[in-house]
Design brief:
By secondary structure, this protein is mainly alpha-helical.
Length: 233
């Protein structure tokens, strides 16, 4: 802070606004990864894809970078309209000088993200996480019908949204893992009946799980169900 203050004293008067804009830009860029993970559908996608890899039993295949990259690309595809509205509502007017207050630009830019997070919580019915965090912060939630979205600030909404996404992702992962568990049980029963106790069941069940997944066009089914499960704004 002292270095920034000392540098600001040597900035010419005409370029001080540009220096402030640069600081704001660096702050936004430093917070962008956290916003991408916490305020979008990335959490749901990456958790479900990770559980899918665990169900297949392919260890580190596909690699973690591929799964995270796929989740990131799908996140951009889903969030493109929301991010565009956020850009046009707050960031672009501020950069063009139409809005001079950073606070007003932040309020306008965050509203599309708030609408997206509220839409997902409403679609999954996970309002209990919102009420839990509001109660923890000392707000009165005895009559939820009197509460409005304006009563939920970002400090409450973001962790409630993440908890909602984690719950939804685990429910989806449970449905995905069931067929693979059935295959593992059948293979283990067959190996025990044949007296092949030394053969790992996962070694035999892996080809059958891959065959089932490919024949059912599993990637399209999983990704399609994930995308269709995200509520539109």
């Amino acid at each position: 802070i002292s270095l920034v203050a000392g540098a600001a004293q040597h900035v010419p008067q005409g370029t001080f606004g540009g220096g402030v804009d640069l600081i704001v830009l660096l702050t936004v860029l430093s917070l962008a990864p956290a916003l991408l993970v916490m305020c979008t559908c990335f959490t749901r996608l990456v958790v479900v894809l990770g559980l899918l890899r665990q169900g297949l039993g392919t260890q580190a295949l596909p690699p973690g970078q591929v799964m995270a990259g796929l989740a990131l690309l799908l996140t951009f595809a889903v969030m493109a309209p929301t991010l565009e509205r956020s850009w046009n509502a707050g960031i672009k007017p501020y950069m063009d000088g139409q809005i001079t207050s950073p606070e007003e630009a932040w309020v306008r830019a965050r509203q599309p993200l708030r609408d997206f997070m509220f839409a997902q919580i409403d679609a999954t019915g996970n309002w209990s996480t919102v009420y839990m965090l509001m109660q923890h912060r000392g707000q009165d939630v005895s009559d939820p019908g009197r509460l409005t979205r304006a009563d939920v600030d970002m400090t409450t909404l973001v962790p409630a949204f993440v908890l909602s996404e984690l719950k939804t992702a685990f429910l989806i992962g449970f449905r995905i893992l069931l067929p693979f568990v059935v295959i593992d049980l059948v293979v283990a029963s067959v190996l025990v009946s044949l007296g092949m106790f030394m053969v790992p069941p996962s070694l035999v069940s892996l080809p059958f799980k891959l065959l089932l997944f490919v024949m059912a066009d599993g990637w399209q089914l999983v990704v399609g169900s994930l995308l269709s499960g995200i509520a539109p704004v």
